[in-house]
Structure formats: structure tokens, C-alpha cells
């Protein structure tokens, strides 16, 4: 029953992530209700998508609740400081989820469908994390440092929105690099480099772990 619940929660998380990445751009607006609903679903499905210990759950549940609270405060209060706080809490919480996912994958004995789903979710969460990081760098450059300009140039966009940052993050994470979006501020450039390196390290290390576990299981037979 526990394994079935983990598989179901991973599928739920995967569906929510794909909806955020693929469908959300159809709903324009930084404070979109669709975005906030999807993010809230990601927060709580992420908490229960890995076989966390009771101690971990006691940490993650309050973090997830606080993160969801800041997200919905930002939905009703349009303020640069609120948006920055929301982005930072979202980033910290998703980092905790991804780290625990990777730890769970590393500790697993077999390569099960649930572990594969968790690996995919971890990669997609990295892309979302990158989008949040880019949003933080942009709002800091535009509002906190009162420069009046944006840290990233998006074609045809006067004010970049959350789905724009998600797009640029995945293009960078996968090293696809269309070149249509360019970071122009030193912090956003550093974030772009970090996202690109993290994506490659995640794939190489994760594949090495999964292949090693699979071969080890085959040799054990």
C-alpha cells in the first residue's frame, strides 16, 4: 500500500509539473490563479512523493504550509517585496524537496518505476527552481536595486512573467540555448551558468547511480 501511495503521489507531482511547464503559459499573468493552484499542488504532492522519515515530514509540512501561504498572499497582495519573499520561500522549500529526492534515489536498492518517476520529477523541479532563481534575480535588479530595467531580455516582452523565467530556465538547463533570451545583469548571468551546470551534473550523476544499481542487481542474480 505504501509503495502504491508513493507511485500515485509521484504521478500527481509529475502531472502538476508538466501542467505548470506546458499548460501554464496559456494563462498569462504573474499572479495567475492557475499558477498558484499548480504551485500549491506541487508543494504538497512533493512532500508525499518520496519515502520521507517522520522527522523529515515534521520539517517539510510546516515549510510547505508556509510556502503555500506566501504564494497565496502574493496572489492577493501585488507588491515587489511580497513577490520576492514568496520566490525565496518557494526556492528554499523546493531545494529541500529535490535534495531529499536525490538522497532517496541514492539510498534505494532497486531501480523501480517509482524511483524512475522520482528521478524525472527531480529534473523537472530543477527547471522550476531555475525559473524561481531567475525571477529572484530579475525582481532584485528591477525593484530592490531600483535600476528600472530588467535583468533578462525577453523578445517582445516589456515585463517578463513567471512562465518566461520557466522557459528560459529549461532552455538553459537542457543546454538547448536558442539565444532568443539573454541575461544582461551579472547576477542573472551567474544564475544561468549555475542552472546549466546543475542540469548536466544532475543527469550524469543520476544516470551513473541508476545504471550502477541496475547492474548491481543483475550481478546479484
Secondary-structure topology with pairs:
Blueprint: H1 2-23, H2 33-47, H3 54-76, H4 80-107, H5 113-144, E1 152-153, H6 162-173, E2 182-183, H7 186-220
Antiparallel strand pairs: 1-2
Structure characterization notes:
- The chain has helices spanning 2-23, 33-47, 54-76, 80-107, 113-144, 162-173, 186-220, and strands spanning 152-153, 182-183.
- With 221 residues, it is mainly α.
- The protein has one domain (2-220).
- Helix 1 packs across helix 5, helix 2 packs antiparallel against helix 3 (54-76) and helix 3 (54-76) packs antiparallel against helix 4 (80-107).
List keywords for this structure.
7 helices; 221 residues; two-stranded antiparallel ribbon; mainly alpha
| Series of secondary-structure elements, N-terminal to C-terminal | HHHHHEHEH
Give the overall average pLDDT: 86
Please identify the structural class as seen in this structure: mainly alpha
* Strand order in the sheet with the most strands: 1-2
Shape: globular
Low-confidence stretches: none
For the sheet with most strands, the description reads: 2 strands, antiparallel
The count of β-strands is 2
Give the strand content: under 5%
Quote the distance from N terminus to C terminus.
Answer: 26 Å
Total count of domains = 1
Please tell me how large the radius of gyration is: 18 Å
Our count of helices gives 7
Approximately how much helix is present in the residues? over 70%
